[in-house]
Amino acid sequence: MKKIFILLTLLSIILSGSTSMKYGYKVGDNATDFKLKNIDGNYISMSTNPDNKGYIIVFTCNTCPWARGYEQRIINLHKKYAPKGFPVIAIQPNDPEVQPGDSFEEMQKRAEEYNYPYPYVIDAGQAITMAYGATKTPHVYLLEKDGSNYFVRYIGGIDNSPRDGSLATEKYVEIAIDQLLAGEEVGTTVTKAIGCSIKWNAAAKAKLGKL
After folding, report:
1. DSSP 3-state assignment of 42?
2. 103-133 per-position pLDDT tens digit
3. What is the per-residue DSSP string for 106-134?
4. pTM above threshold 0.85
5. What is the per-residue pLDDT across 9-34, written as a single tens digit (0 to 9) for each?
6. Which residues fall within 8 angstroms of residue 36, CB to CB, at 6 or more apart?
7. Apex CA 82: angle with CA 81 and CA 88, to 5°?
8. Into which CATH architecture does domain 25-210 fall?
């Protein structure tokens, strides 16, 4: 009887632990549009450019070494795939009160210094970050447009070489987009995002703790 009780207790802990992580989009979900402030002061949404075939949504920031390491690769993704209908929208998810280096003013400086060719918006209330389920910087969500909907086709890392892009042997995002452009289903739909943890505000932490 005691063994059964212990097993049931362990099962309860495992189930409660897994449940707490069940938030955010999964592959195949319809991602809601957003309206977030870009570094130029204008508000950006996916519907701003209705002719696009989809979007490369990248949750990234100024301060994370991993995000900085992927900076040029994100720029390259935009330059390669924006003309093909899959531009980048970079979303800064961190709370600037927790991480001052990720303030809107610092975002503007970083984008100007590195000449970002894509929108760099701030998720000031972190609602979009939570809706997507992003946990790292960088964290990619590849969306494909179908009518007025945006379906999640891939979630995870940009490639399999977080430290050195020249060593990447699997460019997950590029492969996924090429498959979509060829009219194929994405082969690898989920990979592990490697980067810094997102810096949540107190309200977001409280909400996440209840999920």
Report:
1. coil
2. 999 999 999 999 999 999 999 999 999 999 9
3. HHHHHHHHHT-SS-EEE-TTSHHHHHHT-
4. yes
5. 333 333 333 333 457 999 999 999 99
6. 43, 44, 45, 91, 121, 122, 123, 124, 128
7. 95
8. 3-Layer(aba) Sandwich (3.40)
